[in-house]
Amino acid sequence: MGAICQTTLLAGSFLVFLYGIVPLLLYVFPNIELSLIFMSAVNWPFTNYSDPRAYGVKYDSRNFYLSSSDGIKLGVWHMLPKSLHKSSVFNEKGFDTVFDDERYPVVLYFHGNTWSRCASHRIQLYNIFTELNYHVVTFDYRGFADSTGTASEEGMNKDAHTVYQWIRTHSNRTAVLLWGHSLGTAVATRFASDLCLSGNCPLGLVLEAPFNNMFDAVKNHPFTSMYRWHPWFAEIFTYPLLKYNVHFKSDEHIKNVYCPILILHAEDDNIIPSHLARRLHEAALSADRDSTFKEFSRTKKYGHKFIVREPELPTITKNFVKKCTSGI
């Protein structure tokens, strides 16, 4: 009898903690939710970013740093196309000058939350791009990896502008394709909107595992599923987003994106359900934008971050770039 009472007490205490204490902590300390959204602290300690090839990058590459307009140091990788591997590019100046060759488009990649630019599934994608003879430029947002500062929506947008401006400093002619994954799709979409509104649309925009806006992403996330019945759900989970100006309203920004858009999503994505990607696609179509939605069957088991394993991804990418360039 005593064991049953003890078990009941423990179970009751756990439920009180789970459904009482945790929501209270999230409400009183809204920065906790912010940390869960960006998860910039989730990374391998003592990582050395100086040699991209040590992490599996296939072709010649370099690590360097840029400074944003507000003094943030950003860690950046630049990977060369296959055709330029082992060429005469051996120094910083050489890497910079090859951007001006229009035969090799540039993919500016925006990663999702957690880890860094050297995460293995990201490396696999970079290698697909370089194999297709594209330059790849990727970076860690402020607060991630070896970049300084603290992650925020506004700050990440500034970071995107900083890296893009560096690309354009070295080439005004080379086409730039924006590719974002997960949280990075929101950064890429807002940035693409900025470029298009300024009359400088990118070549195209690829959104891998995107969501329509942060409010819906939070509401549909597995972590919040156990709290959806909670009478204070909106106050607990929406208040921090409003307080810290974290909206990521891709469904609004995408209406200003005039270049071709490709949305890729896995049917079995349990982190960002595919119906949120469909809502984003529908928002683009409602504004008469050129958006294509491609969903991968759950039988492929790609989940949230392994669309990179799709055998047809190189062909899909190449055909999309061809479509984009045909409209120039």
From TrEMBL:
BP GO annotations: monoacylglycerol catabolic process; phosphatidylserine catabolic process
Domain Serine aminopeptidase S33: 106-223
GO cellular component labels: endoplasmic reticulum membrane
Keyword Membrane annotated: yes
Keywords noted in UniProt: Membrane, Transmembrane, Transmembrane helix
Keyword Membrane: yes
Transmembrane segments: 7-29
Database matches in Gene3D superfamilies: alpha/beta hydrolase
SUPFAM superfamilies (alphabetical): alpha/beta-Hydrolases
Top-level lineage group: Eukaryota
Molecular functions (GO terms): monoacylglycerol lipase activity; phosphatidylcholine lysophospholipase activity
Classification via Pfam families: Hydrolase_4 (PF12146)
Name under which the protein is recorded: Monoacylglycerol lipase ABHD12
